[in-house]
Each structure stands twice: as structure tokens, then as C-alpha cells.
Amino acid sequence: MMNINLIVIGRLKEEYLRSACAEYIKRLGRYCTFELHELDECRLSDAPSEKEIASALKKEAEQIKKYARGMIVPMCIEGKHLTSPELSEKIMSAGVSGQSTVTFIIGSSFGLDPEIKAMGALKLSMSKMTFPHQLARVMLLEQIYRAFQIAEGGKYHK
């Protein structure tokens, strides 16, 4: 069985987002072993300098590296745009090529440290539009679930 890890910086604040995530995590249980790692976001001043941001991202990277394994997929604005079937193919091909674990990483509102991005076998972007990080988590979980449905030939993906 495939393993899917999701590493996120920060915690979900809104109950409706937690409920949506819980639903997709429950659905994923049919297809994979799923692990969620919610890591603490570094506190920054109200108007952080570039140096302060870089330092925070470096600290967050150290936490991320403790859990990142298998095929690493950092979510970042400069990442590749894939269709849902293309994402399904990437996830399934990881398993076929001997990578039993795929780790998706969502950084803080300031993104991810360059070291984490460099670890990525695939850098992925959801859209050219900007979404709240908390909503991005729900969207990514839905797409991972959709990927398994596509691979199975399920009716969920139309």
C-alpha cells in the first residue's frame, strides 16, 4: 500500500476546514496509509525583514526535514501546473518505480526554504491564483483523493 505524507506549517483554525480535511483523510484510508504532520510556524514581526523571513524559513526547513521522505513534492508558486490525471499518474508512477512514499509539503505564508524546494522530485503549484494556506490544504487533499479515484477508474472524477 502506498504511503502519503502531508507536512504543513501551521494549524487549521476554522472548524469547517478541519472537517473537510478529516473527510478527505478518511476517504484516503481506502487507498493509502496517510500521515499528517502539522509543524509550528515561526513567529515573525508585523513587518518582517527579508533576513527575518529567511531565518524563519530555515528553522521551518529543519522541522520539515525530520518528516520528509520518499518522493518529495513541495508546493510552491513557481511549481509545475498539472491536471488531475497528470497528478494521478505522478503519484502512481512513484509507487511503480519503488517509491512507496510520496510527501507533499505546504509551507507558511512566506513559502518554503530553497533547500526544501531543491529536495523536490516535483515542485507543484495549484494555480497562478493565490489561495489561503489553510484552504490549500483542503484543495491538495481533495486532489490526492481524486488522483487515487482516477487511478482506480472511479466515478468521482468526471
What would your notes on this structure say?
The chain is α/β, with parallel strands linked by helices. Helix content is 44%, strand content 20%. The chain contains five helices and four strands. The protein has helices spanning 15-28, 50-65, 84-96, 114-119, 133-152; strands at 2-9, 32-39, 71-80, 101-106. It has a four-stranded parallel beta sheet. Helix 1 packs parallel to helix 5 and helix 3 (84-96) crosses helix 5 (133-152). The mean pLDDT is 94.
Residue windows where pLDDT falls under 50 for at least 5 positions: none
Spatial strand order of the main sheet: 2-1-4-3
Q: What structural class do the secondary elements suggest? A: alpha/beta
What's the tally of helices? 5
Helix-strand pattern: EHEHEHEHH
Principal-axes geometry comes out as: globular
Mean pLDDT: 94
Percent strand: 15-25%
The largest sheet is:
4 strands, parallel
Give the N-to-C terminal Cα separation: 25 Å
Specify the oligomeric state: single chain
What is the radius of gyration computed over CA atoms, rounded to a whole number of angstroms?
15 Å
Name a few traits of the molecule.
158 residues; alpha/beta; four-stranded parallel beta sheet; 4 strands; 20% strand
